[in-house]
Every structure is written in C-alpha cells, then in structure tokens.
Amino acid sequence: MAKPSAAMSVGYSMECDVLVITALQKERDGALAETDGHKTEWVEATAQSGFPYHYCEFTDDAGEPLIVAVAWAGAMGGVAAADRCRSLVELLHPSCVAMTGICAGRRGDVFLGDVIVANRVFHYDHGKSVTTNTDTGARETQLFHEIETYNLESTWAMNAADFAVDVSSLGDLLADRPVSLDSQRMWLLRTLLAQEAEGGDPAESHAEQGARCPRWSEVVTSLERRDHVTLKAGVLKLSRDGRELALRDRVLNKTGAVPDPAFRVHVGPIAAGTNVIQDAEIFNQLKKIQRKVLGLEMESAAIGYVAANAGIPAIIVKAVADYADGDKDDSFHEFASRASFAFLIAFLKKHPPGSLRSTGATPRPVPAAAVSARHANKLRNAAKDWAEQYESTIEPGWATRPQNVDFYDSDKDLTALRQHFEKLNDDYLRWRGLNSAVRDVPTLPYAMIGGSGDKPQTPDGEALVRERNEVVRGIVFQLMKIHTQSSITGECESCRTKNRTVVRQKQQGGAGSQNWQAGRDIRFHGGSGERRN
User: Fold this and answer.
1) pLDDT for 315-343, tens place per residue?
2) Domain 181-252 maps to which CATH number in 3.10.150.10, 3.50.90.10, 3.40.50.2300, 1.10.10.10?
3) Which of 12, 27, 34, 402 sits most deeply, having the most CB atoms within 10 A of its CB?
4) How much is the pTM?
5) CATH 3.40.50.1580-classified regions of the chain
6) Which of these, 71, 55, 66, lies nearest to 473 by C-alpha position?
C-alpha cells in the first residue's frame, strides 16, 4: 500500500471533487494501494469527529486536477456509512460521492472479480413485515416491500455503459486477478483423471500446477470435504463422484479444463440489505423485486440517500468477491477492492463531476470566477507566491507568535484572490480570528523550554495554535490548486464594476472603505452570482 504522508490534525478543512466511502478498512487500503495516475501522494487528515481520511490529487484526461478523498466508514452497515458520509460531505464539500469495495454477485451473470457499476441502488428489506398463521397452524411471515431507488445520473449511466466495454484502463492490475477455487478444483480433477486413466503427469508436479492450481493445499482439502478425492498414505486419488465430475467436464469441454472467464465490467442494479447474507437462493428472491439485480451488499443505498439529500450525484462501483452462498472465496477481496477503485478513478478521469454541470445534470456552481486571460495568469502567479508566504507562517505546535495581519490585508493580489474564491476568503477570515485569539494564550518564556517561541501553558492553548496552523495548511492547499487550474477564462464585468465602487468608497472615506480594508466586505461572483459576507 502507498505510504500516506504525515497526518493532519483535527480541524483541517479542504474541498474535494470526489469523496469515496468504503465499508471495510481493507477496502480503503485497497483504494490507497492504487497509485497509478497520482499527481501527489496520499495525505492523511483527521476530521473533527476524530475519524481519519486520506486525499490526493489525480489529473483527469483534460489535464485538470481531480481531488479525491477516501474514508472508511468505521463499521459495516448503512447507518455507519451514512453517518460517515454525511459528516465528510459537510466538511469537504465534494462535487460527488462514491463508494467502492466488494459485493456479492449473481452467479452466472457475473464472475468473481468483475466490476459492477450500479445504475440504481435500493434497500431490498425495507417495508412492512406481516406474520400470519396458516391452516396447519404454522407461522408465515411476508415482507411487503417499500422500494426507493437512488439512480446513477443518466449522463453517467450512458457513459458507464460505453466505458465498461474497454477494460484497458485497469492496466496491469488485471494480471493480479486470482484464479477462482472452482477453476482450480476442476483443473485438479481433470489432471488426476488423466494421470489415473492415461498415465499423465502427476498433478502435484505438473508443469501447469503453479499457474492453474496455486492454492494447492486449500483445493485438495476442499475436494476432500466434498468427497471428490481421497488422500491416503500420501497418495491423492479421485473418488467415484470426483471421477464422474471429471468425465462429465471432459465431455463438455474437450479442449481441457476451462479457465476463468475474462474480466468484465457490468452496469446494473445493486441491492442493499441490513445483514450479511449466506443464501444460495437470495438472488432468486431479489428477482421478485428487481429482475436484473447483479450485486448485493449493505451500504450503497445509504450513500445514495445521503447524496440525494445533499443535492450531489453519487456513483457506486463494487467488485464481486463471492456469490452470497456457502462457497466463499476470500482470495478475491483484495483484488475486488483495488479493481473497483481503479475503475472509478479511470471513469472519473474521463467523465469528471464537472461534466455533469455542463449538461445541466447538477446545479452545483463552478467555484472559479470568470476573468480575462491576463487577469487569470496574474491570479495564478499570485496564488503561488502567497502559498509560499503562508507556508512560511506555519510554526511548531508550541509556538504562539501571531502574524502581522496588516501586511496581509494591504496586499492587492491577495485581496483579488479572496474576491474570486469564496472558500479561500472564508478560511482567510478564520485564520485572522484564530491569529487574534493566539495573542491571548498564556505562555511560558522560551528560555524555560529551550527553544524559539513561547509554549502555551494549557492544552486548550496548544490546540488553538495547532488549529491556526491547520487553517494555514488549508489555505496553502487551495492556493496551489488555484495556481494549477486552467479553467479561469473569459471576461468579467463584475471585477471592473467592483473596482470602481471600491475606489469611490475610498475617495469618500466612508465605512465601505474601512470594511474593505478589514476584510469583511468581500463580494463574490461566478456560477452562483454575487453575495455579501
């Protein structure tokens, strides 16, 4: 797994394009293990709730930054997933939410390791449960379903159907796909048949054994349990039932034991329930509710619910790890976790959340203002310069020296950046407030602790200093994102109008001039129009 950089502490705030929630820790670890296409390393941060999350920057196919955050829900089930997702949506303001990881798949329609992109998700066990007594006195329970579906955005649904045909986006990952136990068992039965009936090479020393039956001990043990082979005095032989299976397969597949089918990506419904299911008939039951259900798990509908209430799109991508029956094959868990995340990132690089805005599928505004090309270049350069300025103000956790606020307030380039980027201005004002509060923190002289700066006397004081530093890190992150973005284009009448208004206020010496200098009257424009803080 890629090693994340040092953790950010509580209170750190940023924005991301994609928030990915996983139900299991190993699913999150599988996501973090995918390093293909990263522009930056994974960074670990801690939300106010105390839960960690990771983020990094990818680059989409148009060359634009794609900021992705990944978090583990902390527990299985829809409640934990919804709670974690909701709190991070409020903290990170993502353009879309996603879920990756493992699911059960419908045997015969999908194969182990295959990816399923959900075109709709729903709770299959919500509704009214009614229990009655039959004529024989037996109690019979029936569930009257109340189905509410959360659908993939129609544009993304069409894109996913086209994108699913080409799996080359997963690159070398497909080479890590395990060989299924079913395939390994049949290869061993066929090889033992050839050995016993035709004098073929012994199975345990066969040239293909490493590739076709890599989990030798597990396969032999499972065939013994099924009474398909016997192992006595160190000799492995077919049982009568095992011989019949091998003979049948030889008739049906004359060229040899059939290997696993090629990896595929499917688009179809995924059902969510409240319990882990081990029932070979579960998908036949689900057909009564949704005829073409391909996947089954526990959390996807909760993620769809949170996204719908937040007014942002959701995309659920899961990979098949088992068939929800008693024949478990845990070897696919790691591959499925990685494959689902790798496909999600490849898809969003080609069809980023911003593509939905351009088609009117979602009303979320573009955060950057529209300015002239010359002004855009000036903003980018200023953003880089100010990122370096702010980075130099981050002190050790025990230092309390406040910065010179007047120096920052008087700079026209920083004021222009704050005019155009609302989140940057909000964090700037938050930094100013924290910087002022630091002045009142009681400290010990540096000579008593042997270092430069003063040490807060209380844990609350030290926490305040750390919070200020985290806000600074957030400002640096935003400034560097502004520096690299290329979507600040077009003419901006609002800029010129605003500048003339400010000049008049200064000439008149009114309250507007004082408020402007104090950083409390910044106006914003862009996709969402103007507003005054």
Assistant:
1) 999 999 999 887 777 889 999 999 999 99
2) 1.10.10.10
3) 27
4) 0.65
5) 18-178+262-358
6) 55
